[in-house]
Amino acid sequence: MSTPIRVAVVDDQDLVRAGFVLLLGSSPGIEVVGEARDGLEAVTLCRRTAPDVVLMDVRMPHLDGLAATRTILADPACAATRVLVLTTFEEDDLVLEALRSGASGFLVKDTRPEQLLEAIEVVAAGEALLHPRVTRRLIERFAALPSGRSAVDDGLTDREREVLLAVSQGLSNQEIAASLHLGYGTVKTHVSHLLTKLGFRDRAQLVMYAYESGLAVPGRG
After folding, report:
1. Confidence (pTM)
2. Same domain, 28 and 62
3. Count of domains for the chain
């Protein structure tokens, strides 16, 4: 029997939080380790329970979700914790700031229950997940930035740059393997090396780096 994914639920709206707890509690592969109504409570909860995944609201009193995310992920006690941001907002700056804060995923609250459960599994497995609408808006945001940037000298090999570019296009490891005619295990190794070399936690940060460095250019497949 596999170990359940340990999840903390953070939202300042009691009904919304209760709904998430009820949904997650009904899933045999998930264990809700606690809930919090603001960022300060979230930090305390995560330090005490070290959950695998935190469902994090953004707009909260006392300490917002982005500041709480930064605090939690900087704590050695939460080294293995990943944050999945949930919000009703889709502002571009919020998406970028959530990723810069270390969030591994970003979903809007109207996501269907089955998609939320799948997202938790994806993030717990160390992958990144962005809602399709969020991904589109994020790329549009980068498209509006000044052109003429070039990728920095980051010590990556040509093959690693190819894999990074494929990651930035939203491809899974399986899809990258097929696209670049590589073995699945080889792609996983390349992604792992990219994370280590660039000092990132997950694929979400790789996507952001690819665009900010100029390696990936919106509209260029």
Report:
1. 0.72
2. yes
3. 2
Residue 102 gets the label, from left (phi > 0), alpha (psi -120 to 50) or beta, of: left
Domain boundary among 88, 114, 140: 140
Q: Which of 169, 168, 161, 166 is nearest to 197 (CA)?
A: 161
Q: Choose among 78, 84, 19: nearest CA to 57.
A: 84
Does residue 167 contact residue 206 with C-beta atoms inside 8 Å? yes
**Is 65 inside a domain boundary?**
yes
Report d(CA 174, CA 188) in Å as an integer: 9
What are the tens digits of pLDDT across the range 79-133?
899 999 887 765 556 767 777 788 888 888 888 899 899 889 988 887 767 655 5
Residue length of the chain? 221
Q: Is the dihedral of CA 158, 161, 165, 166 positive or negative?
A: positive
Q: Are residues 36 and 115 both part of a single domain?
A: yes
CATH of the domain at 183: 1.10.10.10
CA-based nearest residue to 43, from 56, 30, 31, 32: 56
Q: Give the tens place of pLDDT for each residue, 164-203.
A: 988 887 777 888 999 999 999 999 899 989 988 888 877 7
Q: Domain limits at 60?
A: 5-140
How many degrees, rounded to 5, is the angle at CA 194 between CA 192 and CA 195? Answer: 65
